Amino acid sequence: LLRLLFQRLYHDRRKPEGKFMGIYCGRAGAAVGVGEHDYSAAAEAVIGRPAITSASPKYLPLVPPYEGGGWGRYLRQAKVTWPLFSYLCNNFPLFLSYKNYKFKHMKKLAILFSVLMLVSGTFLSAQSLDDVLKEHFSAIGQDKLLKVNSIKTTGKMVTQGMEIPFIQMSKRPDCFRVEGTFQGLSFIQTYNGKEGWSLNPFAGVTEPQPFTEDELKSMKYSADIDGMLWNWKDKGYTATLEGKEDMEGTSCFKVKLVTKDGDAFTYYLDGDSYMMIRSNTKVKVQGNETETDTYYSNYMQVEGIAIPGKVDTKMNGQVVMTIVTDKVEINPDLDKALFEKPTK
Question: pTM of the full predicted structure?
Answer without folding.
Answer: 0.65
